[in-house]
Amino acid sequence: MSDKNRENHVSEQTITRPAHSSGGQAGTDRLRPRIHPRPRRGWLNDPNGLLHYEGRYHVFCQYNPDSARHHRINWAHLSSPDLVRWTEHPVAIAPDRDGPDAFGCWSGVATLDDGVPTLVYTGVQQEGGASSVVLARSGDADLDTWSKLDDRGAVRTATGMPEGEGVTDVRDPFLFTHHGHRYALQGAGSPDGDPAVLLYDAEDLDDWRFLGRLLDAQNVRAVDLAPAEIWECPQLVQVDGRWVMLLSQWRWVDGKHLLSGVSYLVGELVDDSGALPFRFEVASGGVADTGPDFYAPQVLAGGEHGAGAGPLLWGWSWEGRDEVLADEAGWAGVLTLPRRLRLEGERLVVEPAAELEALRASCTRLGGGVLHELGDLTEVVVEPSGTDVEVVLVTIEGEDCGRVETVLRLSAAAGLRVFIDHSVVEAFCGDAVAHTVRAYPAAEQRWAVRAGEGTVVEAWELDAMDVNYRSE
Fold first, then answer.
1. What is the predicted pLDDT for the residue at 15?
2. Where is the Glycosyl hydrolase family 32 N-terminal domain (predicted)?
3. How far is it, in rounded angstroms, from Cα 464 to Cα 37?
């Protein structure tokens, strides 16, 4: 469990310091992450359009290139051959003044439609207005140019709002294949109503047919595991032979909307002779990330990026600092590290992608029972033990010298890997889900770790990822 912001004090003699740390030397912004690639500046939120194409991973995301605030959303585009070296591409899609996406190009996915790279996303024409599913296709190998127009010069729209469903919000299309047939999901609900996941026949990507509700409030188990007024960003993928659904939980509390976390459901798609071709039977579920700063994940299904590879997931980690500070920095929001998904029985296990080990530079073995200062870019590896591990910020000078602020405290019973990247911390708990939290060291603060006596801890200094930013 997390124990953020708990404070205590230690003396200078109880802190061990590394010989050097290169993590804080990359660039001029000490708080900007170095292994969480993102566009050079601007606002970033939901990962979108994950695609492995022509030997490269393509990751799109919600993006405002003009400021560090959420407004007039475009899609940014990054790509990598190996999840370590990245290239920033031109903006993929942007709102068209008179189009169905005039108010924003909201979340969606990427797919290959008869071999043609295609973006499938929510378009909203005006604030508070109805949504539609818009398509954009690319004909170049680098996926730098996209067209929303069909052969007649009209914007491609696959479907609009379903009639008679009693929902005010429908968004975030997701595609999957079952029994060789392509289907689509959309998240839905209302601020004063109940959540739903809508199912469509999307075999013809340009013309969807609404089938009904795959999941709604009548499924008591689902609502208990993922309480919300709107289920956003539904994902449905196979993990180790089971179907896993991810739901981001949009809540309406005291007249304000709240993004209250992400849950997963494990179950089966059972053939049905009723109104739907199948139903989703929920067997178990839980929280997909135990941290406070994780939302709207998207999954690249296994098999779409290499034989035998399991599903890959990215999520959005928002800022926990004042918007004015983000304005001054010129950027807000990061995507999480790429994560692999697997199941142990009915339980989801989330692990860092193995490719990230290529970032390891040098290793220091640390003793337990002592507070060890770390660099701003470090991976902490803890062998299984019966103790907890704390990641903290320690003040090293000034009148508060020795003050310790706990950012997270987690059990190391199944082992632990913690990635510290300037203002992002991602912890992977051996046989469980991840824990994502943001924290912002002041100039006089340093990252540090403390484990119990006898615990084996390694601290890997990491190299920054190589990001080839586009010229401005």
1. 57
2. 36-352
3. 10
Mean pLDDT of 3-27: 45
> Which of 137, 136, 45 lies closest to 95 in space, CA to CA?
136
**Number of CB atoms found within 10 A of residue 440's CB:** 15
Contact criterion met (CB below 8 Å) for 335 and 314: yes
Are 6-24+358-468 and 37-336 in the same CATH fold? no
**For position 2, what pLDDT does the model report?**
39
Domain ranges of the chain: 6-24+358-468, 37-336
Secondary structure class of 270 (helix, strand, coil): strand
Separation CA 352–CA 18 (nearest Å): 25
- Structure-token pair, residue 189: 């609900």
pLDDT at position 19 is 46
* Contact indicator for 250, 189 with CB cutoff of 8 Å: yes
Give the model confidence (pLDDT) of 172-199 as tens digits. Answer: 999 999 999 999 999 999 999 999 999 9
Contacts 24+ apart (CB under 8 A), 111-120: 111/51, 111/175, 111/205, 112/51, 112/53, 113/137, 113/205, 117/51, 117/53, 117/143, 118/205, 119/48, 119/49, 119/60, 119/75, 119/92, 119/93, 119/146, 120/158, 120/173, 120/175, 120/184, 120/205
What is the Cβ-side half-sphere exposure of residue 388, based on CA atoms within 13 angstroms?
A: 10
DSSP 92: -
The answer to whether the CB of 158 falls within 8 A of the CB of 208 is yes
Strand-pairing partners, residue 404, are 8, 394
What is the identity of the amino acid at 330?
Answer: G
Number of Cβ atoms within 10 Å of the Cβ of 209? 13
Q: What are 461's two structure tokens?
A: 């200094």
List the CATH code of the domain at 37-336.
2.115.10.20
Model confidence at 11: pLDDT above 80: no
- CATH architecture of the domain with range 6-24+358-468: Sandwich (2.60)
380-417 in b/e burial notation, b at 16+ Cβ within 10 A?
bbbeebebbbbbbbbbbeeeeebbbbbbbbbbbeebbb
- Quick check: 251 and 260 in contact, CB under 8 A? yes
